[in-house]
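User: Please fill in residues for this 370-position structure.
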C-alpha cells in the first residue's frame, strides 16, 4: 500500500492504495475519494466532500481509514476518521498533534504514522497498545504485513543510511534491525506473509530482499546504473517465497525481479564450480537473469504505484523445474489512470507482456464500468 503523494500540486491523484489482498483499490483526489474493484475496474463507492491524502481499506469490508488534505477545517490532516461506507457515517475519530503521514490496518491492529512517532492500536476497541519513537520520517515511510502470525511493521532506523527497524506489533516487541543500504531508504515493502522485506534507497540503483526471521540478505538486484526515485515496491502473492517483485520508478519504466527463477538458478549455480568462488550477494547483483524491464510503461516523472496481483507458475512435472511464470500486474498513475498488464516469462527467461486495459480513474461513474 502506498503513502500519500509528494508529487506536484497539478497531480489529480493525492493518494492511492490497494487493500490487503489487492482485490480493491482506493484513490483520494482534491474532491473526495473513490473505491474500485480491481478485477472489473468498476467504481464501487465515491464520496465528494473535499480532498483526502490517505484512504486505507480493511480488505473488502466497509471500514475505511481516511485523512483529509486540510483544505477545510473538517478535513484536518491531523485527524484520522474510521468511516463506514455502508452507513456513510464516521465510526470513530482520532486527533493528533501533527499531520498523519501514513495509516495501515489488518483485522487486529491499526497503525498510525507521524513524523517522529508510530502508534499501535487494537482495532476493535481502539485501545492504544504501543507508542514507538522514530527518527524523523517526513515521508511517512513504512511497511506492514497484514498476516497475524508474522505481523511486522517496518520503519526507517536512520536518516543517514538505509537501515530499517522491524517491530512485531502483535507481540509488541522489536524484532530486529536490518542494514540494507548506504543511502537513506526511499521505499520498502513486506511480503503479505511477513517473511520477506524488500528495500530501495534514495539512490535507487539497488533493491535488496531480506529474510525477516533472521535478518539475512536473500537477494540483491541492480535496477539500473543511473539513480532514479523508486516510487513503489510490491511482492507478488506469497505462500513461502514470493514469485515476483515489482518496482516503479521516476524513469517511467517498471522493473520485475523473478525471485522464483532466481532461487532455481541459484540452486544450479551453487552446485557448480562458480558457486564456490562467487558469493551469492555479488552474483545476484551482477547476474541480470531475473531482471526484466517494461520500458516506458508509465509517463516518466509521474508517480506510479504497481502491484503484482496474480502469479501462475508452470512446473515441469518430470524435473520439478520452473518452466514459465505468468502474472497480472496493476498500475495506478498519479496523473489519473489505471493500467492492467498481462505478463509471461518463459523457460528461456524471455518476457512478453500486453496491456490488458487502461482507463481514466476520474471519468468512471457509478453506473458505468470502464
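Assistant: Residues filled in for all 370 positions:
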Amino acid at each position: 500500500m502506498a503513502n500519500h503523494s509528494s508529487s506536484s500540486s497539478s497531480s489529480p491523484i493525492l493518494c492511492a492504495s490497494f487493500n490487503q489482498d489487492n482485490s480493491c483499490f482506493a484513490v483520494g483526489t482534491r474532491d473526495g475519494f473513490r473505491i474500485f474493484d480491481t478485477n472489473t475496474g468498476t467504481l464501487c463507492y465515491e464520496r465528494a466532500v473535499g480532498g483526502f491524502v490517505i484512504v486505507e481499506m480493511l480488505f473488502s469490508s466497509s471500514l475505511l481509514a481516511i485523512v483529509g488534505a486540510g483544505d477545510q477545517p473538517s478535513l484536518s490532516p491531523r485527524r484520522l476518521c474510521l468511516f463506514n461506507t455502508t452507513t456513510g457515517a464516521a465510526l470513530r475519530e482520532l486527533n493528533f498533534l501533527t499531520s498523519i503521514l501514513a495509516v495501515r490496518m489488518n483485522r487486529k491492529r491499526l497503525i498510525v504514522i507521524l513524523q517522529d512517532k508510530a502508534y499501535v492500536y487494537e482495532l476493535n476497541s481502539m485501545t492504544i497498545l504501543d507508542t514507538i519513537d522514530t527518527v524523523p520520517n517526513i515521508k511517512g515511510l513504512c511497511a506492514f504485513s497484514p498476516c497475524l502470525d508474522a505481523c511486522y511493521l517496518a520503519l526507517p532506523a536512520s536518516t543517514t543510511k538505509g537501515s530499517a527497524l522491524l517491530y512485531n506489533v502483535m507481540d509488541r516487541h522489536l524484532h530486529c534491525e536490518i542494514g540494507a543500504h548506504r543511502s537513506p531508504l526511499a521505499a520498502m515493502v513486506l511480503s503479505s506473509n511477513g517473511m520477506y522485506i524488500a528495500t530501495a534507497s534514495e539512490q535507487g540503483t539497488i533493491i535488496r530482499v531480506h529474510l525477516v526471521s533472521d535478518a539475512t540478505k536473500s537477494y540483491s538486484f541492480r535496477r539500473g546504473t543511473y539513480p532514479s526515485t523508486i516510487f513503489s515496491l510490491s511482492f507478488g502473492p506469497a505462500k513461502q517465497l514470493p514469485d515476483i517483485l515489482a518496482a516503479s520508478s521516476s524513469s517511467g519504466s517498471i522493473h520485475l525481479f523473478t525471485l522464483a527463477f532466481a532461487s532455481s538458478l541459484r540452486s544450479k549455480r551453487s552446485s557448480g564450480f562458480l558457486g564456490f568462488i562467487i558469493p551469492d550477494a555479488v552474483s545476484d547483483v551482477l547476474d541480470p537473469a531475473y531482471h526484466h524491464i517494461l520500458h516506458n510503461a508509465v509517463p516518466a516523472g509521474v508517480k506510479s504505484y504497481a502491484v503484482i496481483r496474480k502469479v501462475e507458475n508452470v512446473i515441469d512435472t518430470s524435473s520439478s523445474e520452473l518452466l514459465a511464470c505468468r502474472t497480472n500486474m496493476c498500475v495506478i498513475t498519479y496523473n489519473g489512470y489505471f493500467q492492467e498488464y498481462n505478463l509471461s516469462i518463459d523457460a528461456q527467461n524471455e518476457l512478453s507482456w500486453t496491456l490488458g486495459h487502461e482507463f481514466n480513474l476520474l471519468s468512471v461513474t457509478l453506473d458505468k464500468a470502464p
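For context: The first helix runs from residue 259 to 270.
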